[in-house]
Design goal:
- Helices cover 71% and strands 0% of the residues.
- It has 22 helices and no strands.
- 49% of the residues are buried.
- The chain has a single domain, classed as Growth Hormone, Chain: A (Up-down Bundle).
- By secondary structure, the chain is mostly helical.
Length: 550
């Protein structure tokens, strides 16, 4: 079949995917290898990406401290998270276009500088409005770091070794948000919330030093400043409306009772209008901010959809378990974070193994294995999540939940590049990271809302059992009434007994809400198995098979 992996750039230089690319006659390509060991490059860009991904979650547990220190309410303080995510989501898919203007390495270095400087400004912010402004700048700087790090890895390694490189990137993308809350809680408790931003400064300086000395652009990645004359202002406006509306709707939806709020309806309408207009407009542009036409490649389109769901599962998992431990088991943020530590060690072991497996087993097979494991792990979580869960059981549950992720994450990321023109590696990285982040935001909001909804349903169902005719309820009431009556006086015993039973009812309803959501995620994973069969077959470490791009 045609070697699309080494296809030449489009003749018009616009980044479009022309029709003739479906069956190209590839010209001789320039052999290129980085001047230093690719693993040095991978570790360098992974360091910068880890710093950025960590910042998406490290501030979560510090919000009460931030709000109290700056004289703001907790609700106002949540904009510290929302402002970062909005700016991040807007810049993330634009990275490929910006790198085509100024060069990929130059753009990556610029992102590191912006992120590091804005981190210092965030830590030194005297008021909440100033902090929000600096968080927007920080999110904009961080938005280009994830996709550029992945694209640099993709071009620095030969195709059959990419899976191993993506194992390192997967460790960054999966581990950083997992340890962010516990690390942020420890820093806040022992130092100050300002240090969750200040710790980025030495890491940013080190990353800047290493990237400027080790990373180079391959010959097919060339800066074209003439693109500045044809900036897609309208595309940028539509992207801003869509991502701003979506992130605000997801972050503030539960707080405002979702679509019963006019504000949430307005942000939802902004998203729908923005995304439809963005797709329509970008498809027609010769020099688009986002190369929507890449979705004509069937394999890439399927990988993006699967990665959105994998990102959703990853983020929902990372939120659900510590939330359950803190709300119902009484763990502190630090203790809940410690319970997740074993999962981090599991990733460090399994990620490299999954990376090696991509060179020996087809991406589709590994994806099927990963999703099949998800079905089992979520069902296991549904049965093991109880009020009697111990710290050891919580740690083991996290280990079980982390096992499937490397197989799904690495194989889908690797498959996304299969059959794609190498000149489009920046766009591929930008889009695959974009959909992963958006999928994560969506599923976090949906699972949190579903936990509340199912808990309410179970609460009403359990209340129906609290009737005088129910012998078990009568026996429990009498036993508790006698116990509390003996300790607090006869007249108060019945009231204390009723309150105790009601608290038990609420706790059981909450547990059943979590169990239901885990079971729903298990059924969603069954659907992912079916979708994974749509991925085109490929030889491990090789290009696409016939039909992979149609």
């Amino acid at each position: 079949m045609p070697d699309l992996e080494n296809a030449s750039p489009s003749a018009n230089g616009t980044g479009d995917v022309p029709t003739e690319m479906v069956n190209p006659q590839p010209p001789p390509t320039v052999a290129w290898k980085p001047r230093v060991n690719p693993w040095l490059i991978a570790m360098t860009v992974a360091l910068a990406a880890f710093m950025e991904v960590l910042d998406t979650s490290i501030a979560n547990v510090a919000l009460p401290h931030i709000a109290g220190s700056l004289g703001a309410s907790i609700n106002e303080g949540t904009w510290v998270l929302t402002s970062y995510l909005v700016a991040n989501a807007i810049v993330l898919p634009m990275g490929a276009w910006i790198s085509s203007v100024m060069g990929r390495r130059n753009f990556f270095v610029l992102c590191i500088i912006i992120f590091t400087v804005s981190s210092f400004l965030c830590g030194a912010a005297p008021t909440l409005p100033m902090l929000l402004i600096f968080r927007i700048i920080q999110g904009a700087g961080g938005g280009g770091m994830q996709p550029m790090a992945q694209a640099i890895m993709a071009d620095s390694f030969e195709p059959h070794k990419r899976g191993q490189a993506f194992a390192l990137y997967g460790l960054v993308a999966v581990l950083a948000p997992s340890i962010g809350p516990s690390l942020g809680g420890w820093i806040t408790d022992n130092f100050s919330w300002r240090w969750i931003f200040f710790i980025n400064i030495p890491v940013g300086i080190l990353a800047f030093f290493l990237v400027t000395r080790l990373v180079d652009d391959p010959p097919w990645i060339k800066a074209d400043r003439s693109l500045l004359k044809q900036i897609d202002y309208l595309g940028f406006a539509f992207l801003t409306l869509a991502m701003g509306g979506l992130q605000i709707m997801l972050d503030k939806g539960e707080e405002n009772d979702w679509f019963s709020s006019g504000f949430i309806c307005f942000t939802g309408a902004l998203f729908v209008f923005g995304i439809v207009a963005l797709i329509w407009w970008e498809w027609r542009q010769k020099a688009p901010l986002i190369n929507i036409k890449l979705f004509r490649f069937k394999n890439f389109a399927i990988c993006c959809f699967l990665m959105a769901l994998v990102g959703g599962v990853l983020n929902a998992n990372t939120v659900l378990q510590p939330q359950f431990m803190q709300q119902l088991l009484g763990y502190t943020a630090t203790t809940a974070g410690m319970a997740l530590t074993a999962g981090g060690f599991t990733l460090m072991v399994v990620m490299p193994l999954a990376g090696i497996a991509t060179g020996k087993v087809s991406a589709r097979t590994l994806t099927l294995i990963g999703f099949s494991m998800f079905v089992l792990t979520f069902r296991y979580a549904a049965y093991e999540t109880t009020l009697n869960m111990t710290f050891a059981a919580s740690s083991w549950l996290r280990v079980v939940q982390m096992l499937p992720l490397p197989f799904c994450f690495i194989s889908i990321t690797t498959a996304a590049y299969v059959g794609m023109p190498r000149e489009q590696s920046n766009q591929v990285a930008g889009l695959i990271n974009f959909v992963r982040n958006i999928g994560g935001s969506i599923l976090i909001a949906l699972t949190n809302a579903q936990v509340t909804s199912r808990a309410t349903w179970h609460q009403q169902h359990l209340q129906n059992q609290m009737l005088g005719a129910n012998s078990a309820f009568q026996q429990q009431s009498q036993a508790l009434g006698g116990f509390f009556g003996g300790h607090f006086g006869g007249p108060n015993g019945a009231a204390f007994a009723a309150a105790s039973i009601y608290n038990q009812l609420n706790a059981q309803a909450q547990v059943q809400g979590y169990q239901d959501v885990y079971m729903e995620l298990s059924w969603m994973s069954v659907g992912l198995i079916a979708l994974a069969f749509l991925l085109s077959k490929n030889k491990p470490g090789a290009g696409a098979s016939p039909g992979a791009v149609h």
